[in-house]
Amino acid sequence: MTLTDLFALIAERYGLVPVYALIITAGAIQAGSVRQLLPMLGIMLGVYAVMFKAFDLGRGVDVFGLAGRFGLGADAANGIAAAVFVFGLGFLVYGAKRLVVRPRPQGSAP
Questions:
Q1: How far is CA 47 from CA 8, 54, 57, 70, in A?
Q2: For site-directed labelling of 84, which of 14, 56, 75, 100 has its Cα 20 to 30 A away?
Q3: How large is the greatest C-alpha to C-alpha distance in the chain, in angstroms?
Q4: Distances from the Cα of 98 to the Cα of 32, 76, 92, 93, 103, angstroms
């Protein structure tokens, strides 16, 4: 199996979700504070909710079957899946970054 075959397998199974994950990860790494992270994730949520609705990606992300259990429509399930995906991954990456990259003390020189 070559690298091209691996990418084709991921694309066939998950579509654009891995690309979205890379974009969210890059945004979370670039955010300097939660005040910068929240609007960024909000914009991404709006974009990905539309993309999840357009491509019906929520059906593959709803691992707990909450849509069927609570009788949610496809659009609501896709919106919830997009929100969990964007904010969950965004805060996970931002939190990991904050653990690795510590802020400088206020009085120190660069």
A1: 24, 11, 13, 25
A2: 100
A3: 57
A4: 9, 32, 10, 9, 8
